[in-house]
Model the fold of this input.
Amino acid sequence: FSILLFQDLSIIPLVTIVAALSTQVASEGGAATGWTLLPLALAATVGLVLAGRFLLRPLFRLIGRLGEREMFVVASLFAVVASAAIMQSLGLSTALGAFVAGVMLADTPYRHELEADIEPFRSILLGLFFISVGMMLDLQAIAAQPLFVIGMAALLVTTKAALITGIGLLARLPWRGALALGLLLSQGGEFGFVLFTQAQQGGVIDGETASLFTAIVTLSMATTPFLMMATAPLRRSTTQSAEVRAGPDGETAQALVIGFGRFGQTVAQMLAMAGLDVTMIDKRVDPIDTAEDFGIKVFFGDGLRLDIMRQAGAGEAKVICFCIDGDQLQPDFIASVREAFPEAALFVRSYDRRTAIRLADSDIAFQVRELRESAIAMSRAALAWIDTDESEIDGLEGQFRDIDMTRLRSQAKAGDLRAGQETHVLRGRYQAE
Done:
């Protein structure tokens, strides 16, 4: 991912350089020309990123307080269009403006909510993108110089594969993983089409050269499915060896904590202290603002939506902790989570006894009733204060837990909170037979 991100970021100086070299840059409306675009493009990019930090965040915070999900999409589209318009006014590519807008949006705590909301649009537009890539392929250019185009595409793939494999080895990846990484990332990038189009429009290259470059990049992208099949054995062996090295408690373990209230904060802190990579989600704006004051990254979103959970990394998480208030969890939802993320263990905060009964038959690794545990802790402290022996306190706690669990099973079986009343300690001293 880091290599792909760096590759995409490199388009910013490249597009700017192409615009500066252009001999046909429009000068209408006072647009900058030539190399004066370089400082302007840099200033525009920095300005847009700063605007995203100081303008978009308050806007999304307001939308989050209003609770209008549709407004997130509207605000995102506005940011993209505005950024593209600013870049176009400077004589730069609108695609560059859209890319900078994406960087701005990704730098907000609302990124997972945005990703989930625009997912349908992304799927449709991705299909249109590949259709347009196919339509841009100039078959006549390939037919005119077939050996040159195929040879250059092969050279592009080979050169990139060698460079990225070398980078992987320098990063101490196993040779199989480095080779698989190099082959999978060896194709030309989609921003190349933007670069070639702008270069042609600016008179830096002619139409025939642009067609050849486009054909070369398109052919290199067409190798992707074949390279994925070819590297499958390498990737499998790399994954297996990584699992053996990491073990069950490896540093690759991740946790998703849903709900960043007082309960969720405690859970997240202990998981982070153990070295786990913890992602936190909350649908309230105030906890997110408070967390930012302490330098903690909490993402905005409804943690009970599977699409947002997926965007937040639930598919790779080892544990998912539901630390939300109230009785929002339902057995059907737990079943959906278990089906969507079968590799993750589910840990649930039961708000009260009713919630515990309702989720009694759900596939949950651990369930805790918060009020009971805090009450037991206070009871132990009170007994210790009146000089009760610690072993007796332990015995009383174990006895109470057995009574309470027996009663809970009876209530869950009967579906009635009044069931199991005969075991209630306050009805008389409990005598174990």
